[in-house]
Amino acid sequence: MFAAQILVLIPHPDDEVVGCAAAIRRACRRGCKVAGLYLTNGVPAREQFWPWQRGGHAQRVATRWREAEAAGLVLGLAEAGRQDVPTRTLRRRMSETAQLIDRAIAATGASMLWVPAFEGGHQDHDVANALASRLRARLPVWEFSEYHNDGGHVHAQEFVQPVGTELTLSLDGDEVALKRRALEIYGSERSNLGYVGVGREAFRPLADYDYATAPHEGALFHARYRWVWGHPRVDRTDPAEVRRDIVAFLTAHPRP
Fold this sequence. Notes:
The protein has helices at about 15-30, 55-75, 95-110, 125-135, 175-185, 240-250, and strands spanning about 5-10, 35-40, 80, 110-115, 140-145, 145-150, 155, 165-170, 200-205. With about 260 residues, the chain is α/β, with parallel strands linked by helices. Helix 4 links the parallel strand 4 (about 110-115) and strand 5 (about 140-145). The two termini are about 25 Å apart.
């Protein structure tokens, strides 16, 4: 899972900590160069906030980027670029995001990609995974588990369906402390990070997914509260719409 130059696809600032903080540190200690490409700013669009909150939207975005920069310094993660667009919009930007990834690979000389797993944790994670799947003929792609809702309860750093190629990193005391420190940097997301485990991280070569099919039965993590109306932190997108957008893009843009 290590290479001379690793590019981490980061759907939102904090995914690099949730999914692979210790792995980044281990790679750096091996002499690998690790860079992160931020695919969104991690903040919902301004119009999705309550009217009285919208005036502070720019500050929310600026805060998230400052947190990303600070976390990167702690982890030893260089920045390969950022796409300053709202969370939950990646499925509408797959073409330009694919081009952004191509440019980042060329600019960094990446010889390996890391990306979140297709597990229904967040629609942007699943889109990023699908985009990475197109590149497996060019370079090795490894995925890391963050969180999912298989069986109706939250699992952290544990793949939905093991395929026999999983590599679990057991974090030592220093790595646990590092991960906790990096998580604390994301103060703007503190209320959303209680499910994050700090004892392990899970990787494997990118699995062969049927992106037309849900990662597991039942409510996906990002769709657990679709019935809640209007709250900025609730993703009310139908997961089937996300999968249709993914399949449409992959059909129109097959693997190079």
